[in-house]
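Hi everyone,

Forwarding the result from last night's run.
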Amino acid sequence: MKISEMREEERPREKLLARGAKNLDDSELLAILLRTGTGKKNALEIASDLLDAAGNSLTGLAGFSTERMQEIRGIGADKAVTVAAAMELGKRFVYEKNDCRSMPVTGARQVFNLMFPLLKGLSHEECWIIFLNRANIVIGKELLSTGGMSATVLDIKIIIRKALEKKAHGIILIHNHPSGNPVPGSNDMKQTMNLKKAAETFDISLLDHIIIADDRYYSFADEETCFGIP
């Protein structure tokens, strides 16, 4: 059935105008983004197919590349780009809401809330660095590297150089584990200690290293006595 043949109160666009976006389910919101269907399926049915491929999870969908979306029949490049842009806007909205640039960082949970929107749902590892001044207020953040499913490259020399350029007093390292297990491996431990020692040489404090895995995290500052945010 074409969407135009549905009762007006059941059509996603008309429903949003009459009742507001919060009253639409995920498939209906996606259908509005997709706009049109094919000769065999309407936009609502294609949206349902896309969500089903993502495990009926917006987190799963956020991890889809535009190429992966186009594997769903009825979704071409234009539709995939539209959905990807909407997902990215959602991430940035949550990040902006949790931004802590105007207040001092006092613990790992605060950093988790800041970085979670950027790392949630990724199928690969990313390593980020947060730079802080003497008052522990964020003066910058930067993506250091992107890796595969189980590893990313940590270049200590680049981290120290960037920290010196920003005149940072402290740094916090963050990376994600796509596996869903936030517990650090032996390589995580080794790289953390190497970075801590190198930073201390330049009077820079490595305040924490936080590993994010889905909605959980591991904080070296919380678990290791040699770390801590004053």
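Residues 31 and 44 are 5 Å apart (CA to CA).

Cheers,
N.
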